[in-house]
Specification:
There is one protein chain. The chain is 57% helix and 11% strand. With 463 residues, the chain is α/β, with parallel strands linked by helices. A hairpin with a 5-residue loop joins strand 1 and strand 2 (210-221). The chain is elongated, with a radius of gyration of 27 Å. The two termini are 15 Å apart. The relative contact order is 0.07. The structure holds ligand C2E and magnesium ion (MG) (2 copies). Residues 336-337, 357, 393 line the site of one magnesium ion.
């Protein structure tokens, strides 16, 4: 999950659910022990370790694991509890009430995630609610029945806590919706007013010369300050605004590339542009990219479109044919963040890729984790055999650079050389003062990195 407000609200929901589960588990276990119902006490006691594990995972920011745990455990737990929920005559069963907030919560948490969790698990909860409300399906073991007066209190407690959970989920969803609405309005204004900008991060070859740049979008908002792409790109993807934004990025990057092409000292530079999955999925994607590239007049083979692995879960034929159509006019496809997705290595030869970008998490883990190094070496070797160019992103230290070079990776991008720069600073990086014409990394003191020093910019604290 990307680091934005949605992620914070998901974390709050999961942390809250973990704590509530522990309290509910303690409360019910104590009540069933009091009524000498050890089976029910043990069953409800199961909520305690679950709640602790959930809160711990959420606290550790392992949100995917936490959400998957909750999304699987809670529906099953409620279903089993309903089967054991043996009420005396005249009292209604109420455990199934918890299915309602759960259905909504699962839908919210997995709104941007897997279809299985978003629809199948939510549907299971809704069906569970209906079935256990209308039928008396269950184990019907008289030994489980508790006195009618206590059972009635239990029904009230179950119904009230389920309603409280429902309010909690709705409040969080509402807060999320308000922020999304506000961001949507602000993004529309930014498109209309031309408030987005591009920065360019140099890409370096084995001789430590700048051979290209990756165009990265920037949004400086008057009130919100610098809004990172990780915060607004996922929202733009959901609302469809990624299409005008992505087209603007491509047009602006091509316009810059056209300027580089007319100057001898910059005409060799390539331009990498990120393409988000929902932008790629547009039916007229190939047509609009071809049109933008044609109108800009740039050499298409100097454009690298960066896709992430998420696109390869789509229809293989459609994806490959779109990629082939743009490859046919010369555009190069680069697989961004390689190693972070779930696709198999077969994507490397099933799609017309020209480059893979080793994700920065591998580069970061390479020196501390031997298996990361082995995987990185294997990726580089495999890419070489498949005739794919390899570039490593997130190169921050000379040690990482040396290890990558030893492993056979000869193209790099990262703070060691330079952060993303606005176009003036990028120009200065390309034409350094006569006193600093050695390869980039040689210029750089440990902190800040050398490329930054002669480009006259400061090193950002994070991506
Ligand atoms: P990405 O395409 O993988 O871009 C690399 C990100 O890593 C950039 O973050 C860059 O500033 C950062 N980075 C570069 N060198 C280093 C380093 O040495 N260490 C670390 N820790 N980070 C480094 P940024 O600009 O915040 O962009 C984040 C993501 O947002 C991008 O990841 C890309 O997925 C998306 N994005 C950015 N611009 C665009 C765009 O124009 N269109 C689309 N669709 N997505 C974009
Ligand atoms: Mg990229
Ligand atoms: Mg990347």
């Amino acid at each position: 999950m990307k680091d934005d407000g949605h992620k914070r609200r998901v974390r709050a929901s999961l942390l809250g659910s973990g704590i509530i589960s522990v309290l509910v588990g303690l409360g019910w276990s104590a009540a069933f022990i009091h009524f000498d119902r050890p089976v029910l006490a043990a069953l409800n006691g199961g909520l305690i370790p679950f709640g602790i594990a959930l809160a711990w995972l959420a606290y550790q920011r392992r949100l995917k694991a936490a959400a998957l745990l909750a999304g699987h455990f809670l529906p099953l737990f409620i279903a089993v509890s309903c089967l054991f929920d043996e009420v005396p005559d005249g009292v209604h069963r109420a455990t199934q009430m918890h299915f309602l907030p759960l259905a909504l919560g699962v839908y919210f948490v997995f709104r941007r995630g897997s279809i299985y969790m978003k629809y199948v698990v939510s549907a299971f909860c809704l069906i569970g609610f209906v079935v256990f409300s209308i039928t008396s399906i269950g184990f019907h073991d008289p030994a489980l029945v508790i006195p009618a007066s206590a059972a009635e209190i239990g029904v009230w407690a179950n119904t009230l806590t389920a309603m409280a959970e429902l309010v909690f989920v709705v409040v969080i969803m509402n807060a999320d919706l308000s922020v999304r609405r506000m961001m949507d309005i602000e993004m529309r204004k930014a498109i209309a007013h031309g408030d987005f900008q591009l920065q360019y991060q140099p890409q370096i070859n084995e001789a430590e010369k700048v051979v290209g740049a990756e165009a990265l979008i920037r949004w400086r908002h008057a009130r919100m300050g610098d809004v990172p792409p990780a915060k607004f790109i996922p929202l733009a993807e959901e609302s469809g605004l990624i299409v005008p934004i992505g087209n603007w990025v491509l047009r602006a990057a091509c316009a810059q590339l056209a300027q580089w092409e007319v100057r001898p000292e910059t005409q060799h530079l390539t331009m990498a542009v990120n393409v988000s999955a929902s932008q790629f999925r547009q039916p007229d994607f190939v047509q609009s990219v071809s049109e933008i590239v044609r109108l800009s007049g740039v050499t298409p083979s100097k454009i690298k479109l960066e896709l992430t692995e998420s696109i390869f879960v789509d229809n293989v034929d459609v994806t490959a044919s779109k990629m082939n159509a743009l490859k046919a006019i010369g555009i190069i496809w680069s697989l961004d963040d390689f190693g972070t997705g779930y696709s198999s290595l077969s994507v490397l030869n099933s799609f017309p890729l020209g480059q893979i970008k080793i994700d920065k998490s591998f580069v970061r883990g390479m020196l501390s984790n031997a298996s990361n190094m082995v995987v990185t070496e294997a990726i580089i070797e495999l890419a070489g055999k498949l005739n794919l160019q390899v570039i490593a992103e997130g190169v921050e230290t000379v040690e990482q650079l040396n290890r990558l070079r030893e492993a056979g990776c000869l193209n790099y991008q990262g703070y060691l050389f330079s952060p993303p720069l606005d176009i003036d600073a990028f120009g200065k990086l390309l034409s350094p003062e006569p006193s600093s014409v050695e390869p980039l990394s040689r210029h750089m003191p440990e902190l800040p990195p050398p490329g930054l020093a002669h480009a006259g910019v400061t090193r950002p604290s994070s991506s």
